Amino acid sequence: MGQAASGGLTQGDVDEVIAASKGVFNQAEIEALYKRFRALDRGRKGYISPEEFLSIPELSINPLAQRLVRAAECPNFRDFVRLVAPFSPRASRDDRLAFIFSVYDVDGDGYISREDMAMMLKQLAGSSLSEEDTHAIISRVLAQVGAAAATSTSTSTAAPLERLDLPAFKRALAGADLSNMVVEVNVDL
Amino acid sequence: MVDDSFNKCFTSTRPEPWNWNIYLFPIWVVGVLVRYFILFPVRLTLLMIAFNALILMFLVIDITLPRGRQKMAIQRKLVQWMSCAWVAAWHGVIRYHGPKPTPGPNRIWVSNHTSMIDYVVLCSYSPFAVIMQLHHGWIAFLQKRILSSLGCLWFNRTEVNDRAVVAARMREHVNKPDAIPLLIFPEGTCVNNEYTVMFKRGAFDIGATVCPVAIKYNKIFVDAFWNSRRESFGKHLFRLLTSWALVCDIYFLEPQAQREGESPQEFAGRVQAMIAKYANLRIVPWDGYLKYYNLGEKNPGLIEKRRRVLADVLRGYLGKQAQQPAAAAAAAAAAAAASGSGEKAAKGEQGGASEGKKEL
């Protein structure tokens, strides 16, 4: 029974997963994550379905639960590790920002458009935020990012920004504090 | 996603592999052979003989004797012997601490729950009636024919209306003068004997004196936790019958009455703390039934609460002068939402846990 807990995981798998997640997790953490993956994947299918994710009580009451679970797209173990990699203490700021970008980019076209932002605000604030407030927020955000971009590239005319690509997103969040976006993997010894 | 306090309650502990070297391994192999090929058949045959004989006696008495106190007394004794037969088959080493339960008016017993064998282990010492989930198959036969004689009550945990019916029948049972002690498992589901989940207040709401019982299994030979998601009851029994022994401590604690100004939920919490202390369990504020349903779907109010908070933050952003880069405020709030609850280490769950507790 002792072998069953890490059963099915070979050293080659571990190496591959470490490479795929850019080395932010060490071997012990990968093994702990594998145990977690096996616990979540109740149907022993090799991937975690949305229902299995949503059976975690704390996750299911997160306003972004549905979005996160859809963004995860039935991950197998390698995808699962890549999914949680931006939350490792050793992940780079770029990786964390890229993760947030991918969550916001709902249609996955590489840009955060007005529609993407509207969908996200709907998930975050629900019916507590009125339509006009939602539009006002989106317009103001785009205006300010556009203004900042214009001054940084020192062009005199600021073209109205309709959507954000990843570099613009990163610039806009240059000063943001992401220190609460860190999770320790519980490695039991 | 990485860790959460709810699923921890239902994980079986990983046994340390101790048979890894050249001296211990052959001994372990011999042990396995003894357990599976000698002990198991012997235990199974003795158990089948004893159990079937007792069931036969029980059914005969059921049919022949008229209803009356004598019949009930004999049937209780028989059920007690049946439980003893099972405990002997598992090689149970069970220590009972505290005064033996005696039936009394307006008393109800509560205990933590690890497996269906909790009931058998208790019954072999002193007979109890219990409220159980009605199962299928051969267990259903046992439940309906035999345990009903003890006055056991049946319920279906998915039936919402059952709760009121069960509460009424509990009250009725407890008020009978010579009623056999009624045992309730307020957790509502099997937990792994390291943690204890939220006690439901049903048993604490009927105005009876509550007598707590704490059950602690020693995992030295076998882990008595029945992980109903991973194994069937038959497999669980097989595992018990092929282990060396089942070691267990049972503590009968001092009866507690609801205090002035104490709500049923607080009363339940106080009794839970007592049981957790004796059985060395960690208290977790989640409802055990979350095993069966999705919290967000059942309680959209919890999600709406968080949405309202975020909406206030966003509206504040609109209202105030933009001092920081615009996207930072919105994205920081979103990052907090995304990282705050979904991806959490074990230490970070207090906020979500207290919300879950309040709503449930």
TrEMBL record, chain A:
UniProt cross-references to PROSITE patterns, sorted A to Z: EF_HAND_1 (PS00018), EF_HAND_2 (PS50222)
Gene3D superfamilies per record: EF-hand
Domain EF-hand: 28-63, 92-127
Calcium listed as a keyword: yes
Pfam families linked to this entry: EF-hand_1 (PF00036), EF-hand_5 (PF13202)
Molecular function terms from GO: calcium ion binding
Cell membrane in keyword set: no
Keywords: Calcium
Name recorded for this polypeptide: EF-hand domain-containing protein
Biological source species: Chlamydomonas incerta
Automatic annotation (TrEMBL), chain B:
InterPro entries, per the entry: LPCAT1-like (IPR045252), Plipid/glycerol_acylTrfase (IPR002123)
Pathway: Lipid metabolism
Principal location: membrane
Keyword line: Acyltransferase, Lipid biosynthesis, Lipid metabolism, Membrane, Phospholipid biosynthesis, Phospholipid metabolism, Transferase, Transmembrane, Transmembrane helix
Domain Phospholipid/glycerol acyltransferase: 107-218
GO CC entries: endoplasmic reticulum; membrane
Annotated protein name in UniProt: Phospholipid/glycerol acyltransferase domain-containing protein
Compartmental location: Membrane
TM annotation in the entry: 20-38, 44-66
Superkingdom of the organism of origin: Eukaryota
Gene Ontology terms for molecular function: glycerol-3-phosphate O-acyltransferase activity
SUPFAM superfamilies reported in the protein's UniProt record: Glycerol-3-phosphate (1)-acyltransferase
UniProt family annotation: Belongs to the 1-acyl-sn-glycerol-3-phosphate acyltransferase family.
One GO biological process term: phospholipid biosynthetic process
